[in-house]
Amino acid sequence: MTMTTELASVAEAGKTTRVRRIRLSNTKLATGLVIGGAIVLFGLIGPFVTQDPRLVNDIGLSAPSADHWLGTTQTGQDVLAQLAYGTRGSLTVGAVVGVLTLLLSGFFGVVGAYAGGWVDELFSLFTNIMLVIPGLPLVIVISSYVPDKSIWLVSIVLAITSWAASALVLRGYTLSLRNRDYVLASRVAGEKRWRILTVEILPNLIPLLASQVVFAVIFAILGEAGLSYLGLGASGSFTWGTILYYAQNGLALRLGAWWWFVPPGLMLALFGAALSLINFSIDEIINPKLRNQTRSARKGWRMSREQLSKAKEATL
Amino acid sequence: MRYLLRKLGFYLVALWAALTVNFFVPRLMPGDPVEILLSKLGQHGPVSPEMRASTEALLGTSSGEPLWSQYLDYLGRLAHGDLGTSVVFFPASVSSIIEQTLPWTIGLVGLATVISFLVGVGLGTLAGWKRGSWLDSLIPVTTMFQSVPYFWLALILLFTLGSVWPVFPLNGGYDVYNVTVGWNGPFLGSVLYYGALPALTIVLSSVGGWMLGMRNMMVSTLSEDYMLTAEAKGLRPGRIMRGYAARNAILPSVSGFAISLGFVVAGSIVTEAVFSYPGIGSALLQSVGGNDYALMQGIFLVITLSVLGANLLVDLLYSVIDPRTRARA
After folding, report:
1. Chain A residues with CB inside 8 Å of B155's CB?
2. Based on the domain organization, do B162 and B257 belong to the same domain?
3. Closest by alpha carbon to A243, among A74, A117, A99?
4. Residue A3 included in any domain
C-alpha cells in the first residue's frame, strides 16, 4: 500500500518537472513567434505607411526627430522607411531560399535515401560535393560576372550553394525511417512506393524539415546581408544588408550616426534570434532526449533516504 | 584500407567537380570576360601571345575551338601551376599573389577557428555535465552572438575598441611604418597585436555553435547505459566526464569541424573586408572590384582546394579516433 503511494508521489514529481520543461519550451516558442511575427508584419505593412525611402532631403544627416523617427541618411533619406523596405527585401530573400532549400534538400535527401541503390549513391555523392565546395566564394564569383542582379537571382544563387547540409541531415533520418517495422509492414501490405514515401515517411520528417527550413532562412538572410555588405548584393533594391553597406560607405561609424547602422543590424539579430528560438523548441519536441534524459533528471529518479527506508519496510 | 581508398576516391571526384565548375562558370556567364581582361592588360603594356593563350585557356575563347580541347588545355595549364596574369596587381602572376596572401588568412582564421573549437567544446562539455548551472545559462548569450550578423558584430567591436577606446589598431595586418617584414620579434609582435581583434570577433561569433552542439551531445550521451555502469562502478566524476561522456560526445563536433572549415575560408572574406587584412579574401574582393577574372578564378580554385584538403585531413583523423567508421566501410 505504502509502496504504491510512494510510486505515485515519485511519478507526481516527475510530472511536475516535465510540465515545467514543456512550459519552458512553450515560452521559447512564444517569444520566437512574437518577435518573428512582429518583424514579418513590419515588413508587410511598413512600406505602405512610411515615406518614400529614396526621397532625398536637404536636411542631410540628422538624428531621430518627430518627422524622422529613426533619423536620416547623409542625403536626407528617411531611415525608418528604408528599414521597412529593407525588411521586406530581406524577408523575400529568406522566403525564396527557404522554399528552394526545402525542395532541393527534400529531393536529394529524402528521395535518394528512400530509392536506395545507385540513385542513393549518386545523389549522396552529388550532395557531398556541393557540401565541400565553399558557398560564399562561389556566390561572389558567380555574382561578379552578372552586372545587374535582381533580388531573385541572388536568392537562387544562395539556395543553390546552401541546400547540401540539410539534404545530408534528411538523408540520414530517412535511412533510419525506411527500415522501421511499420514501413516494412506497409510494404508487405502492398502499398505503392510513392504512397509509402508521402503517407508513411514524409509526415515523420515534418519537424525535421521545419527546422531545416528555419536554418536555411537564417542562413539566407545573413548570407544576403554579408553579400550586400561586400557590395555584391542585388542592385537597386533595399535589404538590411544594403542599408548597412550604404551606412558603411557614408562613414556612419566614424560620424557616430548610430541611428543609421544600429537598426538594420538589430533587426537582423532579433530575427535570427527569434528563428533560433523557434528551432530550439522544434528540436526539443522531436528529440525527447534533450528534454528529460539529463543527469539532473536522472538524479530525480533516485529515491530519497526516507523513501528507501519505507520501500524496505514495505518489502519486508 | 578500403575506407581510405573510398575517401580518396571521393576527394578525387570532388576535386574534378571543383575544377569543372571553375572551367564552366566564366564560359556560361553573360559578357566576354576574356576581352575585358585583355583590354585591361593592354592598358598596362603590350599583351604577349602567351598571355593571351593562357587567359583564353582559363576563361574561354571565341575562336571556335571545341569545348573538350579547351578543357584539356585548361587542365594542362593548371597542372603546370599557370593561373594567368593579374590585372589589379600587374605584372604579378596570379600564383605569386596567392602565395603572398594565403599565409595571412590561414594564420588568422585558422588559429581563431581552432581556439574557438577548443573553447566551445570545453565549455559545452561542462555545460552538458552540469545542466542548469551558470554555464548553461551562458548558452543563450553565445547563440545570440551567433545570430548577430558577423560583419555587424565586427563593425561594432571595431567602432568601440578601435575608434571610441583606441585599444586595437583599425586595420591592416601589421605596423607598416615601424617594423620590417621577416622572422624578427617586433614584426611577430605586431602581427599578433593587429590580429587580436579580428581573431576575437571570429571566436565570439562562432564559439556558441560549438558549445551548443557539444552540450546537446553530452546530454544525449549521459543517458547511455555505459554511463550508468560507470556511475555504478563508482568512478570519479571527473573521469566519467572526460573518459566516458566527453570522449563519445565529441565525435559529431569533430566531423562538424570538417564542414566548418569550408565556412572558415568563406567567413575570412568578410573578416578581411572589415579589418582590411592582407589575406586572400581581400585579394578576392579587389579582383572582383577590378574585374580581374583570372585572379578571381585562381583564388576560388585555391580556396576550394584548401577546403578539400582540410576535409580530407579531418576524415583521416576521424577514422583514427572512431574505429566504427573503418568497420562500417
Report:
1. 248, 253, 261, 265
2. yes
3. A74
4. no
Q: Which residue has the cell 553565445?
A: B142
Cell numbers for A291: 528534454
Q: Which of residues 213-232 of A touch B (CB under 8 A)?
A: 218, 222, 225-226, 229-232
The residue with greater pLDDT, B2 or A123, is: A123
Per-window interface: A 160-189 vs B, CB < 8 A:
165
Asked whether the beta carbons of residue B31 and residue A273 sit closer than 8 angstroms, the reply is no
The model carries a pTM of: 0.76
Q: Yes or no: say if B96 and B83 are a contact pair by the CB < 8 Å rule.
A: no
Give the total number of structural domains in chain A: 1
Q: Is B184 helix (H, G, I), strand (E, B) or coil?
A: coil
pLDDT digits (tens, 9 = 90+) for A72-122: 777 777 778 888 888 988 999 999 999 999 999 988 888 888 887 888 888
| Residue that is written with C-alpha cell 546552401 in the block | A162
User: B151 in the Ramachandran plot: left (φ > 0), alpha (ψ -120 to 50) or beta?
Assistant: alpha
pLDDT band at B329, cuts 50/70/90?
A: very low
- How close, in Å, is residue A165 to chain B by CA atoms? 9
End-to-end Cα spacing for chain A? 13
Q: What is the mean pLDDT of residues B296-321?
A: 81
Residue A19 maps to a domain = no
The tally of domains found in chain B comes to 2
Spell out, as residue ranges, where chain A has pLDDT lower than 50: 1-8, 10-11, 293-295
Angle at B145 between CA A243 and CA A137, to 5 degrees: 60
A138 interfaces chain B, CB cutoff of 8 Å? yes
A298–chain B Cβ distance below 8 A for any pair: yes
Domain that includes residue A111, residue range: 27-315
pLDDT digits (tens, 9 = 90+) for B198-238: 888 888 888 888 888 888 888 888 888 888 888 888 888 88
pLDDT tens digits, one per residue of B165-196: 777 777 776 776 776 666 777 777 788 888 88
CA A37 – CA A82 distance, rounded (Å): 19
Q: Is residue B116 part of a domain?
A: yes
Q: Which of A106, A285, A88, A80 is nearest to A212 (CA)?
A: A106
B288 touches chain A (CB under 8 A): yes
Question: Can you give the pLDDT at residue B292?
Answer: 77
Averaged pLDDT of chain B: 78
Q: How far A21 CA lies from chain B's nearest CA (Å)?
A: 12
Q: Given this model, what pLDDT does residue B159 score?
A: 80
Instruction: Clarify whether residues B215 and B247 are in a common domain.
Output: yes
* In a shared domain, residues B69 and B137: no
Among B149, B285, B296, beta carbon nearest to A222? B149
Whole-complex ipTM: 0.73
Chain A residues in contact with B148 by the CB 8 A cut-off are 265, 268-269, 272
Q: Is B193 inside a domain boundary?
A: yes
CA distance A253 to chain B (A): 7
